[in-house]
Specification:
Order of helices and strands: HEEHEE
Structural class: alpha+beta
Distance between the termini: 71 Å
Helix content: 40-55%
Strand content: 15-25%
Radius of gyration: 29 Å
Number of strands: 4
Largest sheet: 2 strands, antiparallel
Length: 103
């Protein structure tokens, strides 16, 4: 193989590598878009936003307390205004769990 053929071969390889890099970039962009769509779909389906806070009014003193989903799911929180314990229960009225609450 002479120098001219070797240079031509290297140039062909360079073009192929560049084309593969462009394809890989497009694939990565498509994957990012799919991940975003899946996240949005999951949020729509399950209605859960882990960053969402809820306002709860204390029945003892009337103070509005902001609590997050995790605290709400724990079942109780102490009011910072009057130290009363606020309790939360989650029930269900579906036929599958007979009122014991779906999990």
């Amino acid at each position: 193989m002479d120098t001219k053929e070797l240079i031509e071969l290297v140039q062909q390889l360079e073009r192929r590598v560049m084309a593969l890099e462009e394809e890989l970039g497009a694939v990565a962009e498509h994957i990012d878009e799919m991940e975003d769509a899946i996240s949005e779909l999951a949020e729509d389906m399950y209605g859960e936003d882990q960053e969402e806070d809820f306002d709860v009014e204390c029945p003892g003193c009337g103070e509005l307390i902001q609590i997050d989903l995790g605290t709400l799911q724990e079942g109780s929180v102490e009011c910072p205004g009057c130290d009363e314990t606020l309790e939360f229960e989650f029930g269900c009225d579906c036929d599958d769990c007979a009122g014991e609450g779906c999990k």
